[in-house]
Structure formats: C-alpha cells, structure tokens
Design brief:
alpha/beta, 18 helices, Rossmann fold, 5-stranded parallel sheet, binds adenosine monophosphate, binds coenzyme A, 7-stranded mixed sheet, 30 strands, single chain, 2 domains
C-alpha cells in the first residue's frame, strides 16, 4: 500500500493533467473541457477550461436516475427538536428541483448570488443545491455571526435573494434568525429583492409584505427546474472567512475542479464506498460543511448526516456515539475541540459502551491543531483509526492527511502525516529558500494547486494576489507555519498572520481590535489568542484608555465584550478584556503579542531585547492574573 501511495503521489505532481483528467472521468460533463489545466491563468491556474457541467446533477440527479433513487441521501438528526428524518436521493432531488423553481420564479439566474443564512435544517442543504442547479452562486453565512457581519457579506456579494429561517436552536436557546436578518438588511447598502423564510414551529417570524416570502407557500405553487449547465470555471459558491482585517475574504469555489477533487477524496482520503454513511459534525456555514456535509458525500453517492446538535448537552456526551449507532455511520469528521468537550464530560468514555459502533471505521479531525492527547484518547476509546488532517477554507479539501484509501494507517502524534496527492508542499524561509528538514518556516504549496482550491477572492483579485502569492512568487502561501520531519511528516504549528482559531472557528484578531478601538474611551488595544483547554484558543483583549476616559476600567471592559457580541457575534467567544496602562511594544512600536501570549499560557519567556519598557510585563502579568491566567 505504501508503494501505491508513492506511485499515486508522484504521478499527481509529475503529470497533473493526466492525473486529474482521469479523476474527472467520474463526473458527468455536458461538454468536455478544451484544456485540463490553463497554467497561463495567473496567479492561480484554472482547471477543466472550456468544460461544462452541473454540480447538482452530479450530486443528485445522476444518483436518483441511476440506481440510488431509494437510498437515503440525507439523514436529518436533530436532538434539539427531537426530529429525525430521512430523504432519499429521489426525494431530495425533487425538493431541490422545486426550490430551484422557486428561486427562478423570483428572478434568480445563472451567476446571481443567493445568501443562505440558516440553521442546520434540511432546507439549508436544499437551498444550496438549488442554487447549484440554477448555476447561481450561494454564500452561506454561519448563524453565530451578528447582523453586522451578515450585512458586510450582503454588501460584498450583493445577493438577489436571501434564504433564511425563523429561528435556530442553540441547545435550549432559540435564536431568532429572522430579526437578525432584518437588522442586517437595514444596515446593508445593498438590498435583496426577496427573502424566502422557512417558518419553524418554535417561532413564526413576521414577514415584510412584498419582500419576504414564505418557504412552504412558495414551494406549494412552483414547478421543478432542470439543471442548468455552467462552465467548469464558473463560481459555485462564495464562503467568507477571516483575514487580517475586519473585511472578510470571499473565498470562491468553482464548479468543475471542485466536483472532481471532492469526489476523488471520498475514496482516496476517507476510504469510503458509495452507499455508506458519512457524517461531518460541522455546520453548513463552514467549509467542512460545504465540502463534507453537502458536496463530497452526495457527489460520491453516500448517505450524509445533517446533525442539529452539539457534542455535549444535547442531551449528553454520548450524542455523537448515538448518531453513529443510529444511522450506521462508517466515517465521521469533526474538530478536536468537540472531542475535548466530550472527554471533559465523559473522561472514561463510559457513554460509548451503550452504543453499537460495529459499522464505524474511522474518525477524521481537522479545523485546528490536534493535540496528541486528544487524538490518543479518541483512538483508545473508539478503537478505530483517528486521523488528523490539515486544510483550510481556501483549499477546500485536505493538503496533508493519511490517505486511508491508498496507504496504511500511520499515526504520528502531532502531525497530520504527509501531503495528499496533488499538493506539492514546501517549507520556506524568509527569502523564499527551501528550509532543511526539521526547520520551521512558512508552509507553501508550489503552483499549480490541484482542482478544488480557490481560484480567486470575490470582488478582490488584487487582495487575492497580494495576500497569497506575492511573498513567494510561484507558490501559494498558506499562512501556517510548520516543519517537515526526517520521515517526511508535516507538523503544522501556528498561523503566521493575525488569525486565531477558537473552537475550530477562524477569527481575525484585527477584526476584534477594530471593534474595541471604536469604543469612545479606548485609546489603543491588542487582542491575542491564549491557550484554552476546551476551545484550543480564546481571545483576550488588552485595552489602554484615553486620558480622561468617562467610564471606569471594569465598565469599559464589559462594554467591549458586549460590543463584540453585538457586532461580530457570539461565535467570537470574546469574554475576557482587561484595562492596562500601556501595551508592551518594540522601540519601533510593534506590540509584543507573542510574549504576552507566553505569559498567559504560563510558558517560559525571555525579555525581548527590543522592548521599549521592560517594566510593562509585570503589569501585563498582573492583569492576566485578574482574568485567571495562566490557567
Ligand atoms: N447560531 C447562533 N449562535 C451560535 C451558533 C449558531 N449557529 N453556533 C454557536 N453559537 C453561539 C453559542 O451558543 C455560544 O454562545 P454563548 O456565548 O451565548 O454560549 C457561542 O456562539 C460560542 O459557540 P461555540 O463555539 O459552539 O461554543 P460552545 O461553548 O457553545 O460549545 C463546543 C463548545 C466545543 C461544544 C463547540 O464549539 C463545538 O461543537 N465545536 C465544534 C466546532 C466545529 O464543528 N467546527 C467546524 C470545523 S470542523
Ligand atoms: P479554516 O479555514 O476555518 O478551515 O481554518 C484553517 C486553519 O485552521 C488552518 O490554516 C490552520 O491554521 C488550522 N488548521 C486546520 N486544520 C488543522 C490541522 N489538522 N492541524 C493544524 N492546524 C489546522
């Protein structure tokens, strides 16, 4: 098997055209491509240029018409409402075709954008696939973002229609999505023509006559819409993710490369067969949800699980094992933080014993660095391979992973193992030189990146070039730092930019700082991520007040916490802020974030030679102590 991996890997780099053309034969094309790869397209090459297809056809119709009509395509499991419901390929295709009819009747055409702001209900998947059916571009916005963030995405993507629901349910709390949406539209410059609202039983939202439409009423009076062929290079979706500034980056995914790559990963990385049950316990608002709740499993003819619940508290730390047993899940994907949450509540794994996991083959983890302890615990308790794999919203699928379909299980604690076929990964020094084995540097991918990786940023071609391709020409800069050890295993250590990772969610400290500095009493601030046993990292804000500040220190700290919740959303998990007299800086004025983080994490640190005022760290230490750090 190791030989097989080596052969496949080598071929993917030596003959990318032949390699991906073979994989593309697994997709139904309405028009064959003229060129597998257009390397002239700069800075990112384009795949399957001239080809046409429909992603929804490949995900639903070909299975519904080709022998899987009665197989479950989607199982909705919602412990928060007590509902479990299964949709066959034929049922899901019919629903999607009808909703595509609804969107078309409301003016949505190929290339138009549709924002999907929904909880984890089947209608979210139906809306995404209906856009794909029409060749419209969906942009799913995670429910934990505040109206402000939703408004920023509305303004950037300029949707014709927004699809939403009356509410979401966070364990026992009802979140009124519709009022958040109303506020976002009020804040946004761009106004969608229509909002289509799915009314859930717990809350019925008020509909604004003329603009808002009821999902059920629309579905009752529509006709199914056929699949519209699109160019392989046309956008399938935009997914916003955090960058260095408060302005989120709209990651674009194309249709052709995406379908080819994701379908290929199902066997090669996840080692699953069509007809088996695949479950990504993520949210449709994140890239994992796009790739592995919706597109990957459906393109491959698997049954996918849509889980509206949490790893703990819905109702207990056995919830994941219950879902695996109830639905016969073969392969599961989640974030390490979810496993840590389960372990905290059920350290001995007592709840696992109550469930029949005999069909369960493997657990994949991603979204943040996986600490060896968490991986070891899961492996020991579950008795199946537990695979850490590394990827990003930008790449759409794994850059580094143990590929269970073409190589034996390899466990290297702290490492997601080796680059996946298609990815030519390098570790580079500041001058663009390849660093020797074991030395930490910038993790970069030699171009061309394989199909499925992002071809651009929405409305921001220059930012695309500047952010990802300018420091190391000819390479994609991942913004992760790491090293490759002497056995060729990759160790991903930390971000090189201002992004922190909170419970598997990517957050920009710059965006948080923009909110903090908008407080009238704040002169300057710094936000950084400190270690957290559950969430991996959590943000802490340090505030310096203006002379003559009106409010006292504690009041300002609670003001900014409330402001972040209001403007960015609860997902930021911003609950710690403290006022200090000054921020530690270098003589050139750069805030010494890394040293503050070390103090907070209780790690050894040395006084930076460049610090302008060594005394300041004593005050930072005291401030952290008031917040309970180091823990
Ligand atoms: N809509 C509205 N609010 C949401 C939300 C949504 N879709 N998702 C999360 N929130 C809120 C939560 O209710 C919480 O609010 P609170 O501050 O009032 O408690 C806040 O956002 C933070 O949420 P979360 O990060 O989920 O923390 P938690 O403490 O509720 O749960 C975990 C902790 C570990 C159980 C949870 O983070 C988890 O399941 N993580 C897995 C992450 C994941 O799947 N990542 C995808 C990449 S694979
Ligand atoms: P996102 O784009 O939200 O999926 O976040 C991507 C970032 O999460 C990466 O750039 C890494 O910093 C981090 N990440 C994801 N998976 C891993 C992993 N397996 N190991 C280390 N870091 C990871």
């Amino acid at each position: 098997m190791t030989d097989l991996f080596d052969t496949v890997y080598r071929r993917s780099l030596e003959d990318p055209r032949g390699f991906w053309a073979e994989a593309a034969a697994d997709i139904v094309w309405t028009k064959p491509w003229d060129a597998v790869l257009d390397e002239e397209a700069s800075p990112a090459p384009r795949w399957f240029v001239g080809g046409e297809l429909n992603t929804c056809y490949n995900a639903l119709d070909r299975h519904a018409d080709g022998g899987r009509a009665d197989q479950a395509a989607l199982i909705y499991d919602s412990p928060v409402t007590g509902v479990t419901k299964s949709f066959t390929y034929s049922e899901l295709r019919d629903l999607v075709a009808r909703f595509a009819g609804v969107l078309a009747r409301r003016g949505v055409e190929k290339g138009d954008r549709v924002i999907v702001y929904m909880p984890m209900i089947p209608e979210a998947v139906v809306a995404m696939l209906a856009c794909a059916r029409l060749g419209a571009v969906h942009s799913v916005v995670f429910g934990g973002f505040a109206s402000n963030e939703l408004a920023a995405r509305i303004d950037d993507s300029e949707p014709k229609v927004v699809v939403s629901a009356s509410c979401g349910i966070e364990t026992a709390r009802v979140i009124e999505y519709k009022s958040l949406l109303d506020k976002a539209i009020e804040l946004a410059r761009h106004k969608p023509t229509h909002c289509i609202i799915f009314q859930r039983e717990m809350v019925k939202a008020d509909l604004q006559p003329g603009r808002d439409l009821d999902w059920e009423e629309e579905m009752a009076s529509t006709t199914p819409h056929p699949c519209v062929p699109v160019a392989a290079t046309d956008p399938l979706y935009i997914l916003y993710t955090s960058g260095t500034t408060g302005q989120p980056k709209g990651i674009v995914r194309d249709n052709g490369g995406h379908a080819v790559a994701l379908k290929w990963t199902m066997k090669h990385i996840y080692n699953i067969e069509p007809g088996q049950v695949y479950w990504a316990a993520s949210d449709v608002g994140w890239v994992v949800g796009h790739s592995y709740i919706v597109y990957g499993p459906l393109l491959y003819g698997c049954t996918t699980v849509l889980y509206e619940g949490k790893p703990v508290g819905t109702p207990d730390a056995g919830a994941f094992w219950r879902v695996i047993a109830d639905h016969g899940v073969s392969c599961m994907f989640t974030a390490p933080t979810a496993i840590r949450a389960i372990r905290q509540q059920d350290p001995e794994g007592a709840l696992i014993a109550g469930y029949d996991l005999s069909q369960f083959d493997s657990l994949f983890l991603a979204g943040e660095r996986c600490d060896p302890d968490t991986l070891g615990w899961a492996q020991h308790m579950l008795g199946v391979p537990v695979i850490d794999h590394w990827w990003q919203t930008e790449t759409g699928w794994a850059i580094v992973s143990n590929c269970l379909g073409i190589e034996p299980l390899t466990v290297v604690p702290g490492s997601p193992t080796r680059p996946v076929p298609g990815w030519d990964l390098r570790v580079m020094g500041p001058d663009g030189e390849d660093l020797p084995t074991g030395e930490t540097g910038a993790l970069c991918v030699k171009l061309p990146m394989p199909p499925g990786a992002f071809p651009t940023l929405w409305n921001a071609e220059q930012r695309f070039t500047d952010t990802y391709f300018s420091t190391y020409p000819g390479f994609y800069e991942t913004a992760d730092a790491g090293f490759i050890d002497e056995d060729g295993y990759v160790h991903v250590m930390a971000r090189t930019d201002d992004v922190i990772n909170v419970a598997g969610h990517r957050l920009s400290t710059g965006a948080l700082e923009e909110v903090l500095t908008s407080h009238p009493d704040v002169a300057e601030c710094a936000v950084l991520g400190v270690a957290d046993v559950l969430k991996g990292q959590i943000p802490v804000g340090f505030l310096v007040l203006k002379a003559g500040a009106e409010r006292d220190k504690k009041a300002v700290a609670s003001d900014v916490i409330a402001m972040v919740r209001e403007r960015i959303g609860p997902v930021a998990a911003f609950k710690l802020a403290v006022v200090v007299a000054r921020l530690p800086k270098t003589r050139s004025g750069k805030i010494l974030r890394a040293t503050i983080a070390k103090i907070a994490d209780g790690k050894s640190w040395t006084m930076p030679a460049t610090v302008d005022d060594p005394e300041i760290f004593a005050e930072i230490g005291a401030a952290l102590e008031t917040l309970g750090y180091p823990r």
